[in-house]
Amino acid sequence: MAVDWQAHARHREQVARDEGVWIGLADENCEPIMDAPPALSISAPRVRNAVGELRVEFSLQSPAGAVHPIVDEIIAEDLGVVDNGELVPSNAPTRFVLVQRTGARVRAYRVTHARARGPFDAPRVLEVHGVDGLHMLERFPAITGPTTWQNSFTRFTRDWAGPSNVGVTFSKPRELAGMKMATVADGVTVEGTAESAVRELIRSSLAACWRVAGVDPATAPLVVSHYSTEKHSPKALIRRSDEKLLDTILPVSAAAGLEIRVWLWLPGDRQPTGLFLTKPAFVIDLVQQEVANAGA
Q1: Which of 278, 275, 148 has its CA nearest to residue 223?
Q2: φ, ψ dihedrals at 201, nearest 5°
Q3: Are strands 281-288 and 222-224 parallel, antiparallel or unpaired?
Q4: Is the separation of the CB atoms in 228 and 195 below 8 Å?
Q5: CA–CA distance, 87 with 68 (Å, rounded to integer)
Q6: In the chain, at which end, N or C, are there fewer CB atoms within 10 A of the end residue's CB?
Q7: Are the C-beta atoms of residues 51 and 135 closer than 8 Å to each other?
């Protein structure tokens, strides 16, 4: 069923005004599933350029004793194990906890683990842990040759890591796409202001990954905007390394006073600067802070 995003936005805003905060559960595409039950406690501290963590406890039982259905989404039947009276999921589909306060953007946290406390058939408290959108940059490489990443796949049956004179085969054939990795520093650096260099490294690396995956940029789940504070940004040089993207850009960003913010855009929200999105997406904004001796 299609989501009425305008109606959902009005609902979130109304609940946030009435109760101070709206909390909901979303699926792997960040489309809403349900409102969350009452929160007993919530902790979601934010530290600049560090992956934010969420810990929230929900009250699961209504006054009539009914158990809120959120427990079935986060701790699904037949997917959990019982440990000292607590139901702990061993596997589950991706779920996001969404949080919105009055006048603020929706903050999204991917559920990493959860525990339901109480009787197996009628748990009373659900404890949920999650991480914010910045963690997604840990899943992508700072690609040395983004234009070489191909979007055509070839079926491989042989494991070429084995001895050259022995035809070792994969237990399961694999579909692989071609790519090239640079072995020298020449030509694999990004130079400019810290803001522009970090943005270009993120943009080109994500574009290569989405091209290989066959994802339309307008529907990509993670994008970088063209937002700028127009403040002075120091010169920087970043070496592409094929290591984790977040690990590559953090030292430069910290030294330059550049903050990396990742927030969730939902249909009906104002479009991010320089982008046109059609589906829920995590948007990366680069926010230049004041830098000492900026005019030097």
Answers
A1: 275
A2: -65, -45
A3: parallel
A4: yes
A5: 15
A6: N
A7: yes
Tokens standing for residue 58: 């929900």
231 DSSP 8-state letter: -
Place of tokens 């949920």: 128
Query: Cα separations (Å) of 44 from 48, 126, 151?
Result: 13, 16, 39
pLDDT tens for 87-143 read: 555 456 799 999 999 988 999 999 998 998 888 778 899 999 999 999 999 999 998
Name residue, tokens 């004041």.
290
Q: Which residue has the tokens 């009425």?
A: 4
pLDDT digits 0-9 by tens, 225-277: 999 999 999 999 999 888 999 999 999 999 999 999 999 999 989 999 999 99
Cβ 188 vs Cβ 144: under 8 Å: yes
Closest C-alpha among 94, 163, 103 to residue 131:
94
Token pair recorded at residue 125 = 């408290």
Neighbours of 287 (CB within 10 A): 16
